[in-house]
Amino acid sequence: MKHIWDVEELATHWSLSFEEMQLLKSKPARNHLPLVAQLKYYQYAGRFPGAASDIPPTVHHYLADQVDADVNQIKAYDWSGRTGTRHRREVLQFLGVRRVSAEDKVLFSTWLIEHVYPTWSDISNTPEHAFEWFRLWSQCHTFFRYRRPADIST
Does the reported pTM lie above 0.70? Predict the structure, then answer.
């Protein structure tokens, strides 16, 4: 992960939405910063941080300002403990992330065979293609899941 972020990049990748701020309502203040750090890191990197040191200090400060928290709270957080594990489950649920189903695997395999392998000779890039496909699939799935049929047709 990059360590130097300009203001525009911080705003684009690390700003909290109203819905994301609502996750904090039932949490003690000491967990606000670590929870949003896990959420935004996952949204940016597609995985969770293993420790506070995985997240650049500039990002810590940017997130701390948004949740009105002391940036040092993140150092006391137990990333691999019960609270960290529970927060990761809550983040995944909030984002609508779920385990890949057998149907998902078939769709992905078909897409690879029909669209990637005929035009891309280097299969070493398959993990990047997989990540992108599942990210786009998830966004599309979320779009249709949260909209009424009348919203989709317009």
Answer: yes
The secondary structure element, H or E, covering residue 5 is none
Q: DSSP 3-state assignment of 151?
A: helix
- Side chain identity at 132, as an amino acid letter? E
User: How buried is residue 32: exposed, middle or buried, by Cβ count under 10 Å (0-12/13-18/19+)?
Assistant: buried
Spatial separation of the C-alpha atoms in residues 126 and 112, rounded to whole Å: 9
pLDDT at 83 over 50: yes
Q: Hunting for tokens 């990748």 — which residue is that?
A: 13
Residues 142 and 22: their CA atoms lie apart, in Å, by 19
The number of residues making up the chain comes to 154
For 24, other C-beta atoms within 10 Å of its C-beta total 18
